[in-house]
Amino acid sequence: MTEQETKKIDSLREFIHRKNEDTHSDSWLIAVLHKAQELYGYLPRDVMDVISGEMNIPTAHTWGVATFYHYFHLHPPGRHTISVCLGTACYVKGAEQILDTLREHLGIDIGGVTQDGMFSLQGARCLGACGLAPVVMIDDKIHGDLTPERMVRIIEEYRSRDKSRRRRARA
Ligand code: FES
Among 22, 34, 73, 133, which residue's Cβ finds the most Cβ atoms within 10 Å? Predict the structure, then answer.
């Protein structure tokens, strides 16, 4: 285990035992899972085992809670996170079509990660750019006035930019 990994696990253990909480309550388990996701970016299997051990609860229960809530991620996030706004203004202007385009083009659904690890897809409430609806945020950049064709073009731009960046890194 690297020093950084040891630090993360220690800070998670400290969080679990910091309060005098009822470690069997699901609300405390959810808080701990949030903390773990904040530290790791997702919930690795071995970290969930540590949580179960420290909290003295069956692993199956921890898994059950982690898979029940859509905001917990069980796989490492993609290099780029796509958040599709599903707020009212975007919905009225065709967010569903944009989401269908992404599902089809990337071959994943909300909560998924593309096979090449490049994109994660997630839904979002209002992204605060209703005037540009329908809107998608990729990492921290807003893309508005989208059509299915424009959405595909943007995704392909990310792909080719990443490809040339990796080629440059190898050279
Ligand atoms: S509803 Fe989509 S940005 Fe506001």
Answer: 133
